[in-house]
Design a protein that fits this description.
41% of the residues lie in helices and 0% in strands. With 101 residues, the chain is mainly alpha-helical. The longest helix has 15 residues. The radius of gyration is 14 Å and the shape is globular.
């Protein structure tokens, strides 16, 4: 059975999960995201578990750059977004701040 049919988030306001969205922000890229076709638990592994399976899917996703930008703009604190773990996204933020200084 499709996980989206059983998901607790079914018929809920996306703001509850993705945070407030700018009215002018184009989120149509999410329709093409490969993560929507897989088990959501893959994207939020337990501490100490591998993020590699999720990252392999991200590597082949056509909207990976948009997903990463989305996560960095929020910031998403948990899970794999745009092919990076929470720690990797935080490191990228720090690097970008240092480069901008």
């Amino acid at each position: 059975m499709d996980w989206a049919v059983l998901a607790a988030c079914q018929d809920k306001d996306p703001v509850l999960f993705f945070g407030p969205v700018d009215e002018d922000e184009d989120l149509s890229w999410q329709d093409a995201a490969r993560c929507a076709e897989t088990d959501p638990e893959l994207w939020f592994p337990e501490r100490g578990c591998s993020t590699r399976p999720a990252k392999r899917i991200c590597a082949g996703c056509e909207v990976q750059p948009q997903c990463l930008d989305f996560a960095l703009a929020r910031p998403e604190l948990f899970g794999v977004w745009g092919g990076l773990s929470e720690r990797e996204r935080q490191q990228l933020r720090v690097t970008r701040l240092e480069e901008a200084a």
